[in-house]
Specification:
The protein is an alpha+beta fold. Helix content is about 50%, strand content about 15%. The chain has 3 domains: about 5-120, Beta-Lactamase (2-Layer Sandwich), CATH 3.30.450.150; about 155-265, 2-Layer Sandwich (Alpha-Beta Plaits), CATH 3.30.70.270; about 275-365, Arc Repressor Mutant, subunit A, CATH 1.10.10.2840. Strands 2-1-5-4-3 form a 5-stranded antiparallel β-sheet, with helices on both faces. It has a 5-stranded mixed β-sheet with strand order 7-8-6-9-10, with helices on both faces. The protein is elongated, with a radius of gyration of 33 Å. The chain starts with a helix and ends with a helix. Mean pLDDT is about 90; it is low at about 365-368.
Length: about 375
């Protein structure tokens, strides 16, 4: 790892926060990159050059100053990274007094270099993973063979492993990915990766299918974020399919009035099937479709509750807080206005499909 002026200045700054002594940091050419004394920056340090050549500590006492031009008394120690010398750190002062401090400073500098190198590796790794995931979920499609090849260089991806994609979303608050990561590590540690792919979405790949209990725990700890869960699938195509179903669950959250809640695609199988019906097939119901405009929001809501209560009139009336006779009146009016009897299973299903498709169409207009 090559020392840069920016990195050297950052290290001198951090060391001087705990050690109040003059410090110089030289690169592999003996040039002072950073110093507690700004005047010395850019100068050649002959003592550092000797330390580099001998690969050992150089102690400069007062009587040796003439032997080392452009130096001051002190201790100069090579700085190592992965068994290679990358520079020299010098601590100015009486060598007998600063020798131990110089060694402590050298260890601190080496720790900072290792930490910086690790941060850079993590940054590159995260960027490579983000690029891979963004290619995977691109709305216009993807190159499967290319992604399979690139996955070989990603430690987080094992294409022989099944994954379930979940989306964390947020429109109103900034993401706190550290909080999300902490929550997952604490309660659901079996995930392969977590990555922020845009300002609205964090993608998580779980190695096992999330249970309802786990989903609830996650939601309790992250109330500001929506959680939308796809299928458990295998391979590149499986990952993309799972993501698309998680995205579908996000879309369905508007339909089911569960924004910023937990929505699992497995609970929306009928709605997904309805949405996938072709426009050509829906054309067979064009006459019935035209009648929907005759229904008020009150009638539509009453029908949905009746349908979800499995046609149980008493339960529906209780949920709507109306008398059963009022419910029967509304159901009769729906039949009169649409020519579809909500008490008939086949016709009720047709009505449900038509109303659901109509709502999807309305939601698309809002999103667009």
């Amino acid at each position: 790892m090559k020392l840069t002026v920016k990195l050297a200045n950052e290290m001198i700054k951090r060391v001087n926060e705990t050690v109040d002594v003059p410090i110089n940091l030289m690169d592999e050419t003996g040039t002072i990159l950073a110093s507690s004394d700004p005047v010395r920056i850019g100068e050649f340090h002959s003592g550092a050059m000797v330390a580099l050549k001998k690969q050992s500590t150089v102690i400069i006492k007062d009587e040796l100053i003439d032997k080392y031009p452009n130096t001051k008394p002190g201790v100069n120690i090579p700085v190592m990274f992965q068994d290679e010398i990358v520079g020299v750190v010098g601590v100015t002062g009486d060598p007998d007094h600063v020798f131990q401090l110089a060694n402590m400073t050298r260890m601190t500098i080496e720790m900072i270099i290792e930490q910086t190198a690790l941060e850079r590796q993590n940054f590159v790794r995260e960027r490579r993973l983000r690029d891979w995931v963004q290619k995977l979920v691109h709305p216009l499609g993807f190159d499967e063979s290319q992604l399979v090849q690139e996955a070989d260089y990603l430690d987080e991806i094992d294409l022989d492993q099944s994954y379930q994609i979940a989306l964390f979303t947020s429109y109103h608050t900034a993401f706190n990915i550290d909080q999300i990561t902490h929550t997952l590590n604490q309660y659901v540690p079996h995930y392969a990766f977590i990555i922020l792919i845009n300002q609205y979405e964090i993608v998580v790949a779980f190695k096992k299918e999330l249970t309802d209990e786990q989903s609830s725990i996650i939601k309790e700890n992250l109330p500001e974020n929506g959680l939308y869960i796809g299928t458990l699938d295998l391979g590149v195509n499986g990952l993309r399919k799972s993501y698309m179903f998680a995205k579908e669950a996000w879309f369905m959250s508007d339909f089911s009035n569960k924004q910023n809640d937990v929505v699992n695609i497995r609970d929306l199988k009928l709605e997904v099937a309805i949405r996938s019906i072709s426009n050509e097939a829906m054309g067979l119901l064009s006459d019935e479709q035209n009648y929907l405009n005759n229904l008020s929001d009150e009638y539509v809501h009453s029908f949905y509750v009746y349908f979800n209560c499995n046609f149980h009139a008493n339960e529906t009336a209780q949920q709507l807080h109306i008398h059963r006779n009022t419910l029967n009146y509304r159901l009769d009016m729906i039949k009169q206005k649409t020519n579809l009897n909500p008490k008939n299973v086949k016709e009720a299903l047709m009505l449900y499909i038509l109303l659901t498709r109509q709502r999807f169409s309305h939601l698309h207009k809002i999103i667009d």
